[in-house]
Design goal:
- By secondary structure, the chain is of the alpha+beta class.
- It has 2 domains: about 1-45; about 50-225, Jelly Rolls.
- The protein has 3 helices and 13 strands; from the N terminus they run H-E-E-E-E-E-H-E-E-E-E-E-E-H-E-E.
- It has a 7-stranded antiparallel beta sheet with strand order 2-5-12-7-8-10-11, with helices on one face.
- The longest helix is centred in the N-terminal third of the chain and has 41 residues, at about 5-45.
- The chain starts with a helix and ends with a strand.
- The structure holds calcium ion (2 copies).
Length: about 220
């Protein structure tokens, strides 16, 4: 065997020895890739599509109302095109004549929730997220922060955290064990009650007023996912 043939033979042996390591490395990389995809889908829910979204970045108000002592005689909040988190947002001015005012989701938003919930898609994993802000922080008061109702049964949740002057983000789990209350009895809501309410969501209210006396409040990025 010539010198060059000996060198080729030696290289081939080297490649054959390296081959299992290459396969092993590729296999480990593939496994890591599968685990990352699995975590993204089932743990971090990165690829979950939201059930309902309102970011107030369009030209229309989208049917959102403000109910209670705000905006004078009007139920319509003011759509601001800039200053949101980001883009547009909804704003309301407190009348400060008594009562508490709430942001009320339109039928399109509520129906999207009920349709997905009734189909079974979204159950046991859903959360309501939203951003709020208010114009002053003094004289705070407590009240129900989120209210869901199907017309006969009302469930509420208190996050006990007034918004800041800047945008403040909230995440409210729809898991009843996280603090949802049956408003009629003042007791912890049951899973069955949450099923009933979300299956026919006629009221989705988010508190907009957190202080006694005049104030201005804003809301942006209302999402159920
Ligand atoms: Ca926005
Ligand atoms: Ca007020």
């Amino acid at each position: 065997m010539s010198e060059s043939e000996n060198a080729d033979e030696s290289n081939n042996r080297g490649k054959k020895r390296n081959l299992p390591c290459g396969f092993l490395f590729t296999g480990v990389c593939f496994l890591i890739f599968i685990v990352v995809i699995f975590l993204c889908i089932f743990q971090f829910r990165i690829f979950d599509s939201p059930i309902a979204v309102e970011n107030f970045d369009g030209e229309e108000e989208g049917g959102w109302l403000v109910l209670g002592d705000a905006q004078g005689e009007s139920e319509f909040p003011t759509l601001q095109k800039t200053g949101g988190n980001p883009g547009g947002y909804m704003e309301a001015v407190d009348d400060a004549v008594g009562g508490v005012w709430y942001w009320a989701a339109p039928e399109t938003f509520r129906k999207a929730v009920s349709d997905r919930w009734s189909s079974g898609d979204g159950r046991s994993r859903a959360a309501l997220t939203f951003d709020l802000r208010q114009s002053a922080l003094d004289s705070p008061f407590e009240d129900e922060d989120v209210i869901f109702s199907n017309g006969t049964l009302s469930l509420s949740f208190n996050h006990n955290r007034p918004p800041e002057i800047g945008w403040t983000s909230y995440k409210v789990s729809l898991d009843v064990s996280k603090g949802w209350v049956n408003d009629e009895f003042g007791e912890a809501a049951s899973e069955e009650e949450m099923e009933k309410v979300l299956g026919n969501l006629e009221k989705l209210w988010i508190r907009g007023e957190f202080r006694t006396g005049p104030d201005t409040g804003g809301i942006d990025n209302v999402i159920i996912r």
